[in-house]
Amino acid sequence: MGIEGNEMADELADAGAKEGRMDNDRSAEPTISGIGTTARALANVTTSDWWRRRYTGLSASYRKWELGYAIAEPPELRLPQSSASPARRSTGS
């Protein structure tokens, strides 16, 4: 003794599972959201791979930050400390 309608739903589910994917089944097609998710994942993998290959060639000042993206060392980081702008030299004390 089953719940009315439940047995019919079970039979339809079993039949659908046995038939497999139908050609006009749009639920299996990619969605805009899914495409965006895949694109972001691929971009993250590509960036991580690039970072791993380039990591040893970066300056020590960037390696210590462990950045996950490409960046070039700005020339300001190579200036002597005394050449920093007055605002940065001032501590306010």
TrEMBL record:
Residues 1-34 are annotated as: Disordered. It comes from the Eukaryota. Residues 16-28 have a biased composition (Basic and acidic residues). This is RNase H type-1 domain-containing protein. It comes from Monilinia fructigena.
